[in-house]
């Protein structure tokens, strides 16, 4: 699939965020919003961190281990290891973030 410039720019932004995750340079204070998706019984099915808004808008889905990026009419959706080398450190940081945000919603069972 041919990517336009906006999609390529989004991928570069996502690569930068992933690099910060891998180098443990990710700061929870940089998270702009946290969205929980739950079933009617309260079971959390997804935790989405909003990392940037406006141009671009980038989200990290902690359960799916995936990024969503939007900028104007462009959008990209990628698993954590797509378009990058698989990175154990980044996956470990995502797991830590997932655990942290699950603790905030304590008493709720995560289903994977």
Fill in the keyword field for this structure.
alpha+beta; five-stranded antiparallel β-sheet; 2 helices
What this model shows, in words?
There is one protein chain. This protein is an alpha+beta fold. It has one domain. The protein contains two helices and five strands, in the order H-E-E-E-E-E-H. Strand 1 (33-38) and strand 2 (44-52) form a beta hairpin. The mean pLDDT is 83.
Blueprint of the fold:
Layout: H1 5-22, E1 33-38, E2 44-52, E3 57-61, E4 66-71, E5 74-79, H2 88-104
Antiparallel strand pairs: 1-2, 2-3, 3-4, 4-5
Helix pairs in contact: 1-2
Provide a concise account of the structure shown.
The chain has 112 residues and is α+β, with helices and mostly antiparallel strands. It contains 2 helices and 5 strands, in the order αβββββα.
Structural class: alpha+beta
- Number of separate helices: 2
Largest sheet: 5 strands, antiparallel
Low-confidence stretches: none
Give the strand tally. Answer: 5
Apparent shape = globular
Distance between the ends: 30 Å
Strand fraction band?
Answer: 25-35%
Spatial order of the strands forming the largest sheet: 1-2-3-4-5
């Amino acid at each position: 699939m041919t990517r336009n410039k906006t999609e390529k720019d989004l991928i570069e932004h996502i690569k930068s965020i992933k690099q910060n995750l891998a180098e443990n340079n990710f700061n929870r204070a940089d998270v702009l919003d946290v969205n929980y998706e739950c079933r009617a019984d309260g079971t959390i099915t997804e935790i989405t961190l909003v990392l940037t808004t406006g141009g671009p808008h980038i989200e990290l889905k902690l359960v799916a281990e995936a990024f969503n990026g939007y900028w104007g009419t462009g959008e990209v959706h990628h698993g954590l290891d797509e378009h990058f080398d698989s990175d154990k450190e980044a996956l470990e940081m995502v797991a830590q973030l997932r655990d942290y945000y699950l603790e905030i919603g304590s008493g709720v069972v995560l289903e994977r």
